[in-house]
Design brief:
The protein is mainly beta. 29% of the residues are buried. The protein is built from two helices and 26 strands. Strands 3, 4, 5, 7, 8 and 9 form a six-stranded antiparallel beta sheet that branches. The N terminus is likely disordered. Helix content is 8%, strand content 49%. The longest helix is centred in the N-terminal third of the chain and has 24 residues. It has three domains: 96 residues, Immunoglobulin-like (Sandwich), CATH 2.60.40; 92 residues, Immunoglobulins (Immunoglobulin-like, Sandwich), CATH 2.60.40; 106 residues, C2 domain (Immunoglobulin-like, Sandwich).
C-alpha cells in the first residue's frame, strides 16, 4: 500500500470514529423543564419536554423545598421517538403555601440529561386567626430573659408581640414583629433586658392577622442569679508524685439548674481549690471557666508540712458570675504516699 493511500485510510478511519462519537453523543436525551400547572393547596403537575433521539428513554422529576431536592418521582417511559415529547407527573400530599423546586432527569443508552431548575408555590387556604402552640422563657440572666413562642400564622401575614410584667396585668409589651403567611409552625422570640434581678415575671404572646387576634396563655420567667445545680469534683495524686513534690489533679464540672443555658451559666466565674491538713491550709489554686465550657481541671502542688500527714482535705468552690450565685461543694479527703 502506498504512503498516500495509507494516509487516506487513516483519515477515513478517524472520520468514522468521530462520526460514531457524534452519533453516541446525539443519542443522549434532550430535556427541558416546563412550568408546573394545576397548582392547588396540596398538589401540582410537574411538566417537561423530553426528546429520546431514537433510543428507549426513561424520565423522572427530582423535587423538594430547596435546589437540593431530596425526593424523586418513579421512573416512567418517554418512548424512543426522535422528537420532543411533553411528559408530566401529578404531585400530591404537598404543604399549602410552600415553595417547591423541581427539575426533569432523563436517561437512555446514550447517557443522562438533567433539566434546569423551576419552582412553584402551593396555594394557601382561607385565613384563620393565629394559633399559639407553645410559650417558654429562654436564656435568663440577672437582668434579662428571652421570651419564645411557636405560632401557626393561620395562612396570613401575622404580627406578634409579647406582653410582660410582675403580675397578670402585665403592663409592658415589646414592639410588634411580623412573620409571613404560612400554615407551618414558626418559632418566634424577643429578648428583653433591663429587668429586675431575682424576680418572677409573667408574660404571654399576642398574635394578630386579618382573620383575628389570639392571646397566648400566661407563662412565667425568672431572672437570676440562680444557684448552680451542683458542683461535681474529684482529686487524685498525679502519677509519680513524691512526698517532697506532691502534685494533685482536681477536675470536675459545674452542673446547671433547669432553664439555665451553658452559654450563659458557664460564661465566666472562677473555680477555687484549697488543700488543708490539721496544720491549716497548705495550698490554694484557681481557674476561670472558659466561655461556654462547664468543665475544669487544675494541677496543684500541695506540701503536707509533716511526714505524718497521709491525707489532705480538698475544698472546691465556684465564685459565681452574672447569672449564678456562688456555690461550695462538700469537702473530701484525698490520700497519698
Amino acid at each position: 500500500m502506498s504512503r498516500s493511500l495509507s494516509a487516506v485510510v487513516t483519515a477515513s478511519a478517524l472520520v468514522l470514529v468521530l462520526a460514531l462519537a457524534d452519533t453516541a453523543q446525539a443519542a443522549s436525551p434532550t430535556v427541558s423543564t416546563v412550568a408546573a400547572t394545576s397548582i392547588g393547596q396540596t398538589a401540582a403537575t410537574l411538566r417537561a419536554d423530553v426528546n429520546p433521539h431514537g433510543a428507549a428513554t426513561t424520565y423522572a422529576f427530582q423535587w423538594g423545598r430547596t435546589t437540593a431536592y431530596g425526593a424523586q418521582t418513579p421512573a416512567r417511559s418517554a418512548g424512543s421517538g426522535t422528537t420532543a415529547k411533553r411528559v408530566g407527573f401529578r404531585l400530591t400530599g404537598l404543604t399549602p403555601g410552600v415553595r417547591y423546586h423541581f427539575r426533569v432527569i432523563a436517561s437512555n443508552a446514550g447517557g443522562t440529561s438533567t433539566g434546569a431548575d423551576r419552582s412553584f408555590k402551593t396555594e394557601l387556604p382561607p385565613a384563620k386567626p393565629p394559633a399559639i402552640l407553645a410559650t417558654s422563657p429562654f436564656g435568663p440572666t440577672a437582668n434579662g430573659v428571652t421570651f419564645t413562642a411557636v405560632l401557626n400564622p393561620g395562612a396570613a401575614t401575622t404580627t406578634y408581640r409579647f406582653q410582660y410584667g410582675t403580675s397578670t396585668a402585665y403592663g409592658l409589651e415589646t414592639f410588634g414583629k411580623s412573620i409571613g403567611a404560612s400554615v407551618l409552625p414558626q418559632p418566634v422570640s424577643f429578648r428583653v433586658n433591663s429587668l429586675a434581678p431575682h424576680t418572677t415575671y409573667h408574660f404571654r404572646v399576642v398574635a394578630s392577622n386579618r382573620a383575628g387576634t389570639t392571646y397566648g396563655p400566661d407563662a412565667l420567667a425568672q431572672t437570676g442569679p440562680f444557684p448552680p445545680g451542683r458542683l461535681e469534683v474529684s482529686t487524685r495524686p498525679r502519677r509519680h508524685a513524691t512526698r517532697s513534690h506532691p502534685w494533685f489533679v482536681t477536675s470536675g464540672r459545674l452542673v446547671l439548674g433547669s432553664g439555665v443555658s451553658v452559654a450563659y451559666g458557664c460564661s465566666g466565674g472562677t473555680i477555687s481549690v484549697r488543700f488543708t491538713s490539721r496544720f491549716g491550709t497548705v495550698a490554694r489554686d484557681r481557674v476561670r471557666l472558659s466561655p461556654g465550657h462547664c468543665s475544669f481541671r487544675l494541677r496543684t502542688r500541695a506540701l503536707p508540712r509533716s511526714t505524718s500527714v497521709h491525707a489532705l482535705r480538698v475544698h472546691v468552690a465556684f465564685g459565681g458570675n452574672a447569672i449564678l450565685t456562688p456555690f461550695r461543694a462538700r469537702s473530701y479527703l484525698v490520700r497519698f504516699g
